[in-house]
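Closing statement on the zinc ion sub-project.
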Amino acid sequence: MKKLIVSVLALVPLCATAQYNPETLRTAVAQPAERVEFILPVVNGYNIYKVDLHTHSIYSDGETTPAFRVKEAYMDGLDAIAITEHIEYRRIEPKMLKFLKGYTGDKALKAENTDLIRNEITESGIKADLQYPVKEAIKESKKYGILVIPGAEITREPVKIGHFNALFTKDNNAIYDPDPLVSIRNARKQGALIQHNHPGWRRTSCDKTEFEKTVYAEGLIDGIEVANGGSLYLPIIDRAREDNLFVASNTDIHPTTAEYYRLKGQNRNMTLVFAKECTLEGIREALEAKRTLAYSAGYICGDKQLLTDLFLASVKWEVVSVDKKKGTRTVRLTNMCSFKFQYKTSKNALPVDLLPFQSIQLNVAKDKDLKLTLTNMLCGNMVHPTATLAVK
Ligand SMILES: [Zn+2]
Ligand SMILES: [Zn+2]
């Protein structure tokens, strides 16, 4: 007891200085920053998890550390992120080696094979440990309760070959081969799911190239990005349905999401994953079952039924009054979720915004149900789903 009292007393002057300095006004800046929360419904018994399946850090060509990616995902309201460095393009590696010259004395470390898109690989191979960024992110994730999905981006010439994310990888160092098809097969061999990234990037159309036809025919593609950064690839919504792929909307973030999204008043892209639990197994099961939607810039894209189910689980409606003479009913719609919905009541009507946590009232004709075309939802190339609300 005596020892305890002594230690407590020893702390007093220090604490007093830190907490009660009368010359220091602690401003609002001293408060912790707040995470954005997205309130979304349970749909068909599944929770909706907000996931980014495509991010970069300084260990390829991004501008932040993987640990920062985790913190940023937390602030942006996500539940999970994949860390997916370019295997073949690690622009910052030569700078890191220059920084480390003091450790090697006069013998400067030379960066090798850091751009395999433009150059052939030499005998020395890839020297970086491609597992390291995933490990750094996983370590940080414990602080924030964010799930980290291990991954890597197979990054080749964009017009004829393209880019493919290997997700749920076990060993990123065992993926590379000079032949991109063998690389994808290597990832699959270790149990990875393969996502086809930004399928229209640097191209004049989203059509499959000869290489992609081969990869798809071999059954190597599990999912596809309908949205990547600021691009929404409209024909890909149809392809995902036809080829039974999960749809994704990812940031492919290289700078910070603050400058790319939040400072412009936007939410970051999110792949909405309908799963029982936010674990590697839970998220993977949902991707394999293709229970995802792609959210980007206020649009929600994917399977028609899942889109309608999301809308109906998010919006409550009730009859507020009845015009007994005309038989018309006034119906109040209330949006109980954090996403905006937009609808039209007829082909030529103007689209109406139903904002998050707001209500809107509209008249419904005698003996009719309320049929809405959901104009910020896309279940095909400029095709919108509809929802029928029974009005009694
Ligand atoms: Zn890419
Ligand atoms: Zn990328």
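Residues 153, 155, 163, 197-198 surround zinc ion (ligand 1) (CB under 6 Å). With this model delivered, the sub-project is considered complete and its resources will be redirected to Aim 3.
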